[in-house]
Amino acid sequence: MSLMRLNLWLILVALISACAPPPQQRSTKPTATQRLQALAAQGDPVLGKFAWLAGTWAGRDLGPLSLEVWEQPHGGVLLGHHQDVDGAFTPYFSYLRIEAHADGVALHVHPQGGEAVTYRIVETGPQMVVFANVNQSFPRRIVYGRSGDVLKVHQDGTEGRTRKSFDISFRCIAGPCQGATLEGDDHPGKPDHRGP
Fold first, then answer.
1. pLDDT tens, residue by residue, 91-144
2. Domain residue spans of the chain
3. Contact 81, 64 (CB under 8 A)
4. Among 18, 114, 123, 180, which residue's Cβ finds the most Cβ atoms within 10 Å?
C-alpha cells in the first residue's frame, strides 16, 4: 500500500510540474521604474555642482526645530524649503529655489510663501556658495557651506542702523546627505528672526 501511495504521489508531482508554465527568460529590457530612476539620477548640467545641498537637514540653533529640505537639481532648478517647528506650530517657513537664468544663478526665497526675494551668486567654492542682494536690508547675504554631514547657513545684513547676523548648523537626517542624527537636546533661546 505504501508503494502505491508513493507512485501516486510521484505521478501527481509529475503532472503538476508538466502543467506549470515554463520559467520566464529574464528580460534585459529595463522596467518603467528603472527607466524613471535612471532619468532622475542624471545630473543637471548647470546646477549639478550644488547637488551637495540635497537632503533633509535639521538643527536647533534658533530654538525650535529648524528643517531645511533640498531636492536634487533637475531642469535648471533646485527646489527646497525651510520650516521652523515649535511643537504643533510653524512660526516661520519659506520656499526656496536655486535657479539657472541666462544672466547667472540665483536663489529665490519666498518668506512665509510670499513674493520672492532674489539673491545672486557672488562667490562659490567646494561645497560652499554665497548669495547676496544689496537692495535687501536683512538678510543681505546668505552663505551655505557643507562639511561632511553638517550644513552651515550664515545670514547677515542690517536692521535700521544695526548690523545683524546669525548662523544655523544643520545635521543631515535623511536623503542623499544621510548619515547623522541630532546630538543632545540643548539649544539657545529664540532670536527675533528665523530661517532663510
1. 999 999 999 999 999 999 999 999 999 999 999 999 999 999 999 999 999 999
2. 44-174
3. no
4. 180
